[in-house]
Automatic annotation (TrEMBL):
PANTHER family to which the protein is assigned, alphabetical: BLL8164 PROTEIN, UDP-2,3-DIACYLGLUCOSAMINE HYDROLASE-RELATED
A GO cellular-component term linked to this record: membrane
Organism of provenance: Natronoflexus pectinivorans
Protein name (record): Calcineurin-like phosphoesterase family protein
UniProt keyword Phosphoprotein present: no
Keywords of this entry: Cell inner membrane, Cell membrane, Manganese, Membrane, Metal-binding
Pfam name, any one: Metallophos
Record domain Calcineurin-like phosphoesterase: where: 1-188
GO-annotated biological processes: lipid A biosynthetic process
Molecular functions per Gene Ontology: metal ion binding; UDP-2,3-diacylglucosamine hydrolase activity
Length: 256
């Protein structure tokens, strides 16, 4: 079985707070091309699909009904992230076991840090976003917001802000039980392999599909082969996927 895992879309209601950066039709078109060319059997939406810190689910449904409908495809499995933890239709994690008994564990990964992994942390962030949405109508607040965004963007700086070590440490604990662990949350596309009791283990982070880019991983669950996808925009993705292609293994960095 071939699975596509993507995360951290942060879909909102198309206002200037939103960091998804995709037109709904173009994103769906891109997804369908990847699904067709890579012969994807299942798509895992690995958390932070919706930006529920800034918007209500009702607001998103009103402006992004095409994507909401598209994600209802039975081929899609939705997992919870910190930004959409209140999504009652999503599950916490997913475990896949292949014919050889090899296991793949998929979760968003936000439980590792306080602000995103705890209820009080999420409440603090939601409260701050609520205040911002009320004061943004003032001209001074609008200008200040964009200056802050330019200096320290919440999406662009995520890979530098998060310390990868604690996520690797968390993954290594899980890899004592599972053969492959896939997370999101950090917006940092990466792949590592290691060995535990002479068994090959793999940790993958599927990156982010925000800011108009397309990142993710394709996994052949039978062969436990991984391909990472990293495209800065739709044009780059189409240039690659319009070619006749087969899923190939990703180049893995080795973790001690």
């Amino acid at each position: 079985m071939n699975i596509l895992v993507i995360a951290d879309l942060h879909i909102g209601n198309n206002d200037f707070f939103e960091t998804f950066g995709w037109n709904a039709d173009e994103f769906i078109e891109s997804m369908e091309l990847v699904i067709k060319k890579a012969k994807i059997d299942k798509v895992v939406l690995n958390g932070d699909i919706f930006e529920l810190y800034k918007y209500t689910y009702k607001e998103i449904c009103q402006t992004q009904h095409k994507l909401i409908t598209y994600f209802k495809n039975p081929k899609f499995v939705m997992l919870q992230g910190n930004h959409d933890a209140i999504n009652g239709k999503a599950r916490e994690n997913l475990t896949i076991t292949n014919e050889d008994g090899k296991t793949i564990f998929i979760e968003h990964g936000h439980s590792v840090d306080f602000m995103n992994g705890s209820r009080i942390g999420r409440k603090i962030q939601t409260f701050l976003h609520t205040i911002l949405r009320h004061i943004i109508k003032f001209k001074w607040a609008h200008k200040t917001y964009f200056k802050i965004l330019e200096f320290d963007d919440a999406i662009n700086r995520v890979p530098r802000k998060y310390n990868s070590y604690k996520y690797l440490k968390h993954a290594l604990k899980l890899l004592k039980v599972y053969d492959m662990v896939i997370m999101g949350h950090t917006h940092k596309l990466e792949a590592y392999k290691t060995y535990y009791l002479q068994n090959k283990k793999q940790y993958i982070n599927c990156g982010s599909c925000s800011m108009g880019r397309f990142q993710g991983v394709i996994v052949n669950t039978n062969k436990m082969i991984v391909e990472t996808l990293k495209f800065k925009n739709k044009a780059a993705l189409f240039k690659e996927f319009k070619k006749q292609r087969n899923v190939v293994p990703a180049k893995m960095a080795v973790s001690a």
